[in-house]
From TrEMBL:
Protein name per its UniProtKB record: Cell division protein CrgA
Sequence ranges of Low complexity compositional bias: 32-45
Organism lineage string: Bacteria, Bacillati, Actinomycetota, Actinomycetes, Micrococcales
Region (Disordered): 1-58
Coiled-coil residue spans: none
Cellular location(s): Cell membrane
Cell membrane among keywords: yes
KW Oxidoreductase (keyword) present: no
Domain of life: Bacteria
GO terms under biological process: cell division
């Protein structure tokens, strides 16, 4: 009879916790799943914190800077090739107009720099 009375006695906090962590089959649950869920939530929060902010509304498209620097480089390379080849390249028929073509291409790149927004 003493055992029946002990079963009805108030339970301690540890006994209540042990009772809550039992599965329907009577075995205990692993409490590490709660810890791993907390760790996953912390990792997701850290990833969200490290994420780059969205591009500002007035920013240029991604292709703008490579195109701008490409025009500048191609224009100046056109002029350098013209001088180093003594007028045979890039287009021999243009003659001295190759300089104007090179500066024109580079000028397009320069004009793009005036619209460059970070």
């Amino acid at each position: 009879m003493a055992k029946k009375g002990a079963a009805n006695a108030p339970k301690g906090e540890a006994a209540k916790k042990a009772e809550r962590t039992k599965t329907p089959s009577g075995s205990r649950k692993h409490t590490s799943s709660a810890a791993s869920a907390a760790a996953a939530a912390a990792a997701a929060a850290e990833k969200q914190r490290r994420r780059r902010p969205a591009r500002p509304e007035g920013a240029n498209p991604v292709w703008f800077k490579p195109l701008m620097f490409g025009f500048l480089a191609i224009g100046f390379l056109w002029i350098i090739v013209y001088y180093l080849s003594s007028g045979r390249f890039p287009i021999a028929e243009l003659g001295s107009w190759n300089i104007l073509v090179g500066f024109g291409i580079a000028f397009v790149g320069f004009l793009m720099t005036t619209n460059w927004k970070s």
